[in-house]
Amino acid sequence: MIGVFDSGIGGLTVVKEIRNMLPEYDVVYFGDTARVPYGNKSPELIKKYALEDARFLLDKGAKLIVIACNSASAVAREYLREQLDVPVLGVIGPAVHAAKAATINGRIGVIGTRATVNSGIYQLVLKNLEQTVPQSTGSSDRSVPAFMRKGKRIQTSTPVMSIVAQAAPLLVPLVEEGYIHKPETKQLVRRYLQPLKQQQIDTLILGCTHYPILKEVIRAKAPKIKLIDPAQTLAAELELFIKDRRELDRSLSKRHELRLYVSDLTLQVNEIANLWLGKHVNVEEVQW
Amino acid sequence: MIGVFDSGIGGLTVVKEIRNMLPEYDVVYFGDTARVPYGNKSPELIKKYALEDARFLLDKGAKLIVIACNSASAVAREYLREQLDVPVLGVIGPAVHAAKAATINGRIGVIGTRATVNSGIYQLVLKNLEQTVPQSTGSSDRSVPAFMRKGKRIQTSTPVMSIVAQAAPLLVPLVEEGYIHKPETKQLVRRYLQPLKQQQIDTLILGCTHYPILKEVIRAKAPKIKLIDPAQTLAAELELFIKDRRELDRSLSKRHELRLYVSDLTLQVNEIANLWLGKHVNVEEVQW
């Protein structure tokens, strides 16, 4: 099965996209609702929780781990890769890839939790991408000494890229309370977007599972900015990843099964699971 | 020592009041920052966490447990009393007592987390108080049959009491983000108070450790309503409770010591502890 975990139930948006993209593949989900949220906790604790979550999924038969939580992807993905023998995919790489392809002026914004923003991971991932992708034109032509290239107009298709990140922690509880189109939400969205707009971003990564639910509100406040939904870009990357690895693909069961587990089954969990994934979805509680 | 626990660090407001009221008594505090918040989790889980928190304090030498968290007081106080051999005090009883004494028209409001409001505990505590406190006047005079009392104007000093509770979950993250005087906060306070004002409450219990920090904002939106701060009323009740029990009092150490533990030591924890309790306060992390 494909294993997906999140700090809560926000990661069900990722499950939904995976089910759209890879409908036949079985998915097992774990939402750590007993310890939600992760975004305001320490990196050490998030790593510990992420490892426990992933191990639970492996016990349930996962052959591949998807971290649907941005905070856990930011802080714990490398750690899980070191600790586990299966592939571990996070939401950040695919989102940065997509943002890089979408931006025209090279200025990318991210909104996320405090843990995500403090990790500096988006900037790091971008830097690593920039270093591995070959430069396309003139400036990389080392046969011409720098002083001779001076003044020469260099055609370059890739602008200088930069990512500016903004913590937007209050949007999570607002979404969880269903305050989608309330004036308080609009005001906070405007407040959080302002420093990013001042930096003239043309592309914005919605770096927390809850934010895509505010897409319309964000679009209204920033109509010219392209929005990147990490749930969608992750699902697309996951498809490529699996199709590229025949052995892994063969190991994944394909009966369109979906198994959902949480560590605390509140009324809200069932409500949201049914709302997002359909009425006949069944969620089980596991005791740690 | 006096043991105090909370889901996070909000309960330090209770510690502060206890230190004001009983400065010589040693206090050990535990804030469960690794699993904060409790207010949106299930009653069963809150009970489990509360018992673990209390047992940690007993291990550290607590002879008396104070539940600083409203959600845990609401859901888990009776459970802890059954499970533990030491006295367990919560914030709800003293707050209802104080509200009952303060109200003139008998209409009391409460704002709290979803767990607190859903528990119905404030109404239950009020009902129990009403039943145990003797009625002061005519209507309790059983020597006169009811039909004879009919039509007679009865002088009564205690009005019919009622409590109306309103969940105000978004105020917690707003306080934690330091959004005290921001327009979004004022707007949400107005929104949450509106149904209570429609019920013509004259007294409001601030039923979550974070809310007293919004006292000024709340007062501005409801200038005629008396505000009850459960941290203060609990500290007053605690003093009476201890002074009434000589053996318990003797068992409590009195060196003005304060020991603070949390399950996740983030930067924010140290900051807030120093802000609320003074610069030389030291917080230790415990691993569960």
Task: Explain the overall architecture.
With 288 residues, chain A is an alpha/beta fold. In chain A, 47% of the residues lie in helices and 15% in strands. In chain A, α4 (92-102) packs across α11 (230-243). The first copy, chain A, starts with a strand and ends with a strand. The interface between A and B is medium-sized, with 24 and 24 residues.
Notable characteristics:
four-stranded parallel β-sheet; homodimer; globular; 288 residues; alpha/beta
What is the topology?
2 copies of one chain form a homodimer.
Chain A lengths: L1 E5 L5 H10 L5 E5 L11 H17 L4 E4 L2 H14 L4 E2 L2 H11 L4 E6 L1 H6 L1 H12 L13 H4 L12 E6 L3 H6 L6 H16 L4 E5 L7 H7 L4 E3 L1 H14 L2 H6 L6 E5 L4 H11 L5 E3 L3
Helix pairs in contact in A: 1-11, 2-3, 4-6, 4-11
- What is the CA–CA distance across the termini of chain A? 21 Å
Cα gyration radius of chain A (Å)? 20 Å
Mean pLDDT over the residues of chain A: 90
Uncertain runs of chain A are 135-155
Helical amount of chain A: 40-55%
Quick one: overall form of chain A?
Answer: globular
Count of extended strands of chain A:
10
What can be said about the biggest beta sheet of chain A? 6 strands, parallel
Beta content of chain A comes to 15-25%
- Strand order within the widest beta sheet of chain A: 4-3-1-2-9-10
H and E order of chain A: EHEHEHEHEHHHEHHEHEHHEHE
Summarize the structure.
Two copies of one chain form a homodimer. Chain A contains 13 helices and ten strands.
